[in-house]
């Protein structure tokens, strides 16, 4: 089977476990902020989008350093500050001071292995969620998105730019779009909606891979397939583990006891909530498909063995008596009358032929030998 | 095994996933209504049935376009507007304006992959449910039915005409029928009752298929059967997934906190509720049957192998010593006294016969060989 | 294996599913009463038992037709009207009018596939339960018992006479018996207690069958046993499915929010409740036994195969070298010195014997061959 | 495998089921008390221990018959009446009258197959629990202990003397012991604590048996081991089924809504409660051990088969060509030049040796043959 | 496989069970304190750390005996008394009297097999938790930590020094550290946080072992691997069993109904709580990995057997006809014309070669023989 490639799911899992461990160690001495993720190539980039209801009330600013950051003062009704890259801890601390974020919130933003959760602080809601994707090995990888929702602002923190929210930025430019017309709460809804859509895409991709695997298994078994079944099972489990707390987060937002969301936006959140429920059901359905696939694999394995055993048995049964007959007439007794017969040899050959064909026909009729098993 | 046909359950599942994905993408920009299902052949058709308690108070109107639709004004106590085909988004929007339906309701009507749910809006209840059927491959397929219940009207939205509600239309013509005498709430009960009956029919069909499969397996194993077991398992899972939220929907309606249902109708809803509970139990029972079938399949597979192994072993044990004896007397030693004996050959043949029959009899007595295994 | 007899559990299940389907169809047009069970041979028979506390206050009346029924007027404190056979819908309707039963109650009485439930109506409680039995194929079959409990009367409806309640009728004749002394509520307790006792009897029978099956499996495997395991598993599932709602029914009666039961009787109901809990535990215990039996069956199957494989391997290992030796000395080379030796033949025979016995002894010592595997 | 001994767990289970059935039948006519357990050899024995706080306030009385029993009048603060053997129903009835026990309590005392429960009656609490032990076949057997706790007295009812409570009797003689100093409620705590300790002992024994079984399986497989695995699994299930209601009982006592326990004793009950939780966890841990053992057993079975198959394959591969060569040179063609060669025989022998050793070495190197598989 | 080493998980489990049993026996006579753990080498050592907010307010005292202990009187705001080694029961009793600890608390401190729990007593909270580690056999072992939290003091009790809390002691020396600035409640948070971090470390180690095992299995199967799978499964179960009550403990502390924690500290406890939730999820993820590993192991076992069976069948099919042909021409009939042919021998050899190569090629083409199976 050649060299074994380390199972990437496990590898991913360990990466995450290690990061958590690192994060947890860092957390033992609160007050010292430290980023636990992988170092990205590009520098930290903050994008500030300010907008009001009027056509002219729209402004985008970008800054990458502390100095630039010091100056930002939003001019219009609502603004959205997005941060790509979390290495620049000092910039983050500045933002933390400016918006009076609790030290634990800053820690959670940097500790990028959080479960999705929502926490209420005075003056703002802190939401973490995970953006999923399939990497080149068809493995689930996920990135943490932290969202802070205040009365008239939204802060988002990502490890690296993924382009998921580009569409929303475009919509914001459009004065007629609902996201522009409604407030900060609707913007958060739009962001979460995008996040949930990513799950649909990932699930669709995974479903395709599983279909391909099913076709492959039906063409012929290979031990690698069993490994893939296990890998997909783990991927689905990982998705499920991510979706359950996400559903809970959206459920909490929808009930919105802290009154950050307008009634209208709450209706939209209910819609996203329905989507997460649907996603969980789809994950369950795929898990059943995977489970059935494993059962099929094992049954096919067993059936292959049956076919081979059958062939072996049939061959042994046919050739054993023929070989015995040949052996008998190969004995060297002096008095073996058949050996002297004129057509003894031919008679024995005929006997063998009859016996062989007879037994073969018998098994053919009983379907112990059939063309199907020679595919 | 020849060419593998793609497992249709998976195919169906992916179709649904894709539609959901499409719907979810469409939903990202609320306000733009878009139908996500398959385009039907026939055009959108709206049927309006108005009726009162009097014999003469019954009127049926059909219209297919926006212009015709503009005119409808119900004259009698209660009316039921049914819409087949959802492509004509403009007609739907007109209806939405006329009955003050929330944009999200219109979206949900068009996004035909909803889970069964009930949502209360000011002035009306919005109910979605799914109408199940078995397609030609014995696969579960389902169609969304959206129901809007107001104080004196019922709106229903279907993708295509299925004839399920024809019987109710007939009953409505009959002044003596309960559905005619009672109000709009009873009509909704009647519709849901019909929907639930469809589940009974589908379950009955599936039960028959499973019985046939069981008979087949007992006649002889074939790898295709394992695939069918998996397919039925998934179908039952799909039914179960559809029934649970449906039960919840009916439970909510029965408690009826918004007072849309009369006390008498609530008793009837409790009856439908009992039916869904019974359906869920039947699904569970069939799932156990399927599960036992899989166990039987694997045990039979194993038992077949045992029988073959037994046969192989018996043949080997019987023929090995006989062949050895023949081999011994086929040796070319100069001094082998038995070879010179007058009846040596016959003695050896007799020895072989005794040995062979003895061993065969031994195994027959121990039931290692029996007629049963040659079936 | 001969002709396959259709698995009776499935058959039974389908019968029930069909009846439910039929019942559910009938239910679509409420108001039309229709009996969905099998037509019984004997006609409908109503038995009226009236009793008071006094010795003389006891009267039994039987009537089979509408005309006779019209006349019954109870004279003493409490009366119990029992109906065997449900074909005579008109008699039932008469009773319904007399006791002001809701049409849905009459429907449920006729639709004999109900789950156990209790429903409160003004002036009476409606209880359905199921009377279980094992049929001649050791399959669970069950019959619906409907009980209506009013302040001073009890109505019971059965499909056919089963003799289960005979003992209670006898006790009623006895002025000293508690059932005579206490009121209608105690009579209902006594009926339910009898019903629950039937479950104990059925479980005991099933336990015996499972023990016999266990003995059989330990004597020798047969594919039929696997089918029996599956059948028992389904029977136990069926019992469990019946017991859970029955427990719930008794629990509701025991809490008795509608005050139909005296405090004293409630204590007795708690006793019956404890019995149902015990029954559920016994069913669980038997399910574990069955589950272990299946594991044992599969392990034994595997172990048999191991034993055969072992025997085959041992025989092959012993005879292969012997046959090779015989083959070698059967070669026709001109210069084979051993062939000329005076005792070459005997030497080779001795060599073979030593080799054969040596290998055999080796395997015996390693327990690859042992008497145990030849049982 | 010789004669099959009936699986004792099943046997025990049926015994219990039968007793329950009997008890349940007896219960149909309340008022008639009847003992359903096995008849013990020794007669009923009542022991009365009266005690106060003072050194002199301690008195033990024993009586075996109704007449003796009539006289007992406790003289000190608290007394504990213990009854061994339940055949003497009349004595029990006397006690029942004396302490105003409800008939259902007397029934439950005699019906010795109760689940652990606690029931509150006016003036006393009725508690049933089960005392577990392992019998000589390592099977769980259990005996019912009924406890009645009044304000200043404790009644206990056992089927036969087990010596479990001897230590408590000794402690009672000691004026300094807490059980002597505190009241009747503390005595009940002490009794329950002893009962729970018995579970620890039984679990420890079972754990040892499972360890031994594990060692045995690692030394060599035997079908009997699979049966033992099943037996232990059932024993653990039985323990679990007993512990859950016991935990509930102690939980109810600890909350003590009827104020039978002092605050201090409640703290001790919390301690016993913690013990039951720990016991349930230990049972779960052992169940996982057993479950893993079964998986190991099956994997080892499969691995044994693999080893045998490997050996068989290797032997067949090595000997098939050798035998063919011998067969070829045993052919009787007139023109076979090799046969005339001077060293043809030796050349062929050498060829065979090279081939045999070469193939053997090949498989040895590939580890198809290794010493490990010959253990 | 040589001598079997007793499975250490079981051994550990039994050790724990025995200690619990011992503890439980000891508990039967409350008032007598007795340590149930293993006797440690070093003597009991009490360390008292007193600290205030000022730089100078920090004092560490150590004492090992009763006499030294009598004198301790804390001088600064907060103090932390840590006890290593629990053999010196008299010292413990002294502490108990000094801080008015309930006798049951002292018992629980000594009975070192408690489940994590938190109990509220007047004036203090009693918390037990377990410190986990992997021993040299990669087995989970755990040590009990008892924590008593008063208004201004913390008492901790450990069986032996583990160095886990050294970092906290260092932080306490630092006037700037949060743990020094905040009160006793924050110290308890810091201790629990350290405990939870240990779980991350253990999980990370276990994850590595499982990865190594996965690599090993993919290189070649060995029965020992199945045992390791079972061992890891049990280890994960043990971790899970420890984490669930720990999560509950932290949850209770976080809600803090007794007001021992400041609001700020409660936020930090929520953080630890999130960590335990994450840990439980990681345990679940690893359990799925282990479960998939077992499935893979069994599938690989089956696939190996398939490969061997395939090889055996191919060899038998190829050599059977060849051997038969050799046997036929080894027969001694007088009239066998082929034997006289000039090139008969060569023709037969050629026939055999054609047949052998043909069959071999056939199977090669069908992939019954392939290089892959000879790895």
Word description of this protein:
5 copies of one chain form a homopentamer. Chain A is α+β, with helices and mostly antiparallel strands. Chain A is built from 11 helices and 7 strands. Chain A has helices at 8-26, 66-70, 89-98, 103-110, 166-173, 178-181, 184-219, 223-255, 263-328, 337-340, 344-365, and strands at 45-51, 58-63, 78-84, 117-121, 124-134, 140-149, 153-158. Chain A has a 7-stranded mixed beta sheet with strand order 2-1-3-7-6-5-4, with helices on both faces. In chain A, a hairpin with a 2-residue loop joins strand 4 and strand 5 (124-134). In chain A, helix 7 packs parallel to helix 9, helix 8 (223-255) runs antiparallel to helix 9 (263-328) and helix 9 (263-328) packs antiparallel against helix 11 (344-365). Chain A starts with 7 loop residues before the first helix and ends in a 10-residue tail after the last helix. Mean pLDDT of chain A is 82; it is low at 1-11. Chains in contact: A-B, A-E, B-C, C-D, D-E. At the A-B interface, helix 7 and helix 9 of A face helix 1, helix 8, helix 9, helix 10 and helix 11 of B.
Determine the oligomeric state from the structure.
homopentamer
Query: What share of residues of chain A is helical?
Result: 55-70%
Beta percentage of chain A is: 5-15%
Mean pLDDT of chain A: 82
The helix/strand series of chain A, from N terminus to C terminus, equals HEEHEHHEEEEHHHHHHH
* Major sheet: arrangement of strands of chain A: 2-1-3-7-6-5-4
Largest sheet of chain A: 7 strands, mixed
The N- to C-terminal Cα distance of chain A equals 23 Å
The total of helices of chain A stands at 11
Radius of gyration of chain A: 34 Å
> By helix and strand content of chain A, what is the structural category?
alpha+beta
